[in-house]
Every structure is written in C-alpha cells, then in structure tokens.
Amino acid sequence: MGRFALTLSATLAASSAGAQAVSDPVEPAEIRVVGKQDPAGLLPDQKVPRAQSAISADFIVKQAPTLNAFQLVTLLPGANVASSDPYGLSTSSSLTLRGLGQDEIGVLMEGAPQNDIGYYYAYPSQFADPENLKRISLAQGSVDIDSPTLGGAGGLLSLALDDPKARRGALVDLSLGSYAARRAFVRIDSGTIGNTGLKAFLSYSNTRADNWRGAGYDTRQHIDAKLLNEWGAGNRASLALSYNDANSSSYPSPTLAEWNAQGRGFNYDKRYTEGNTNYWRLYRAPFRNLYASAPVHLVLTDRLALDSTTYLQFGYGNSPYGTQLTTEGNFLGTEELAQPIALPGAVDGVATVLGNYTGDQMRTGNVSKLTFKTGAHTLTAGLWFDYGTDRVTQSYTSIDADGQPFDRWGYRAKAIRTADGRL
Description:
The protein has helices at residues 2-22, 57-60, 69-72, 256-262; strands spanning 52-56, 79-82, 94-97, 105-109, 112-113, 133-140, 155-161, 169-177, 181-189, 198-210, 217-231, 235-249, 284-299, 304-318, 321-326, 331-332, 335-336, 350-374, 377-398. Strands 8, 9, 10, 11, 12, 13, 14, 15, 18 and 19 form a ten-stranded antiparallel β-sheet that branches. The chain contains four helices and 19 strands. The protein is globular, with a radius of gyration of 30 Å. The chain has two domains: 52-160, Ferric Hydroxamate Uptake Protein, Chain A, domain 1, CATH 2.170.130.10; 171-414, Beta Barrel (Maltoporin, Chain A).
C-alpha cells in the first residue's frame, strides 16, 4: 500500500511539471466582494463620545412583532431587562442601567420625553409599534445637557420612528402565537404627495393574548402616524403621533412556597364568588394615551443649525383593585360620615367593590437649541420649557353579581358617593 502511494505521488508531480511547461499564462481572476454595512442591525457603529449602543430596523424586523422597546434592547451592553409576560403587553416590564431603575432612565421618542409626569416611569407597551421603529439607541450614564428629561442619571433610551416611504405602498402583518395570542398590523404609506414634498404613513395594530399564568388576558390597540417634509440641504420638519388604548393585567408576586404549590396557575381567581376581592377582572388596568411630537431641523448656514421640538402628551387610566366597603362607619379623610352609604349588592352592610386609583395627565413643552460648529469645536445654546399636570383620584365603583365592574375606567360619574354626593 505504501509503494502504490509513492508511485502515484511521483506520477502526479511529473504531470504537473509538464503541464506548467506547456500551458499559456493565465489571467488573474477578478474577485468582487459586495457587502452591506451593518447587515444584522445589531450594534451599528456609533460616532458619539459616550457609552452608547443601538439597534436598527434590520435587527428589529427579525424579532417577534409583539416585543416592546425594553425587550428589544435586551442584548445591548448594560441593559438589564425584566418582563412579566412574553408579549410585552404588561406594564410591569422594567429596565435597569448601572443599578438605576426606570425612574432614573430618560426615554425619548422623536425627541419628545415619554416618561410619566408623576413618577418619571416609562411604560414601553405604550410606545410605537416595532414595525415603525427605525432605530433604538441606549446610552449609559448621565444624559446630554440637551436631552429634555428630568430623570436621566442612569441613561437615555431614544426611539426614532421610520420615515414615510417615498413611494405609495402598504404593509400587512398577521401573527399567531401561544397563549391564544393574535396580532394584526396594517401600515399605509402615501408616498410623496404631488409636488408638495410631503409624505406620510398611518398604521394600526390590534393585539390580544392570554396571561401566561393564571386567568385573564391583555388587549392593545395602537395607532402611529408621521408626516414629513424635507427640503434644501438637510432641512426637515415632521409631525409624529402615537395613540395607545390598552387593558393590561397585573401579576401578583408569589412566594417560593406558593410557586412550588401552584406554578403557572398562581394568579388572581378565575371565577367570582360573593365577597371575593381576588377576582382577576378587578385587577385589569385600562389606560389611553396620546403622544405628539413635532421636531424641526433647519440649516441656517454651513456652520449654524437650529433644532426645535414641540411635544404634547395626554393620558388617562386606572390602576384598580378589589376591596370591600361597609354602609356605615366610614370616614372621608378625618371626617366621620353620619349617614350610611348606598352600596348596590351589599349583604349585611358589606359590599365588594372596585377600588379606583385613576390618573389624568397632560404634558406639553418645547426644547430648542442652536448649534454652531467651527473647526473641532461645537457650541450649543438652548432652552427647554416643560409644563405638566397629574391629577390622581381615589374612588370606588360598584360591581354586578358576576364580579364585573360597572365602570372599569373609574370615571367620577359612576363612582360611589356619600349621602350628600361627595366622592
């Protein structure tokens, strides 16, 4: 066997040498390499002098369409994300940076602050649909001086909406999943409108999914829209709108013993019985909110630029719970009520009711800055105006014999009142 191998090798070598002696010169082969910058959309190059990372649309479109902004940045350096449900519908999702929580992390969308005016929290289930996001960036550490956010010691999460397409078109996305999850998304792009230079898109999504443990389900309806005009050498103005209408479940936290005993079955009760304050329908939190942002970028000279963003935010919702009231022996603050309260469904002077903790919020403002560049230096001067109100009301609403609240929104018109008409 070894002799055969040696003979064969010698024959091949001789043949090769003969071929080289008689063959014509061969032209070098042309090799073309075609690549795309940032093909995956994860961690694109950053040009800012700070600890910042990002994801782009190329990465976002490969993820599950129900994920919220916090869940999408899970892979970014420094991001510690916790979710209470797999579809990003719950308001209990959390983001931590360098040990600082959500009330210390600023959130912007199209340059407008998204944090709650009362507690400085941000709720990612209310943000834009992922199909409409062009980029999400996450910066660690204290935010820039020109970022309009109050609680930004931990970092800054910035969301940029996709620009409307130059050509008219439509996108339809349908999804089905575990826990009876279903989602429909529709987006329509107008294309460039005549000779105006304007282009716009409008999208609508509807999502529903059962709770991943215990009874209950979540729903979410969402609308995004953007109008854009670009002209000259880098000038642009846009108007972005984002509306959200959701009913979200809250998950009670089990002890280790409760989890070992019930596992995924641990949650609020599936069925209502008289006097039960642990029924799941008494813990569904409805919330509606509208975000509007109008960023403008004007190139005044080759060295001077003006950026201005006007924003508006409305929100109303309820964080309810089950409790019991008695017809007598009640206090309104420190005042003892002399007359009994009329409670529908009361048995022996006690009724199970829905406890309401409603928030009615409004926020508006403008952040503007002038940027002057000369050589290696950049000078910035700006002004930020912000005004907000947050009205919190605690009241009670009656429920029917099946445990269904008469009004899950906690509106004052349907709340239980004292004998003299006070809440």
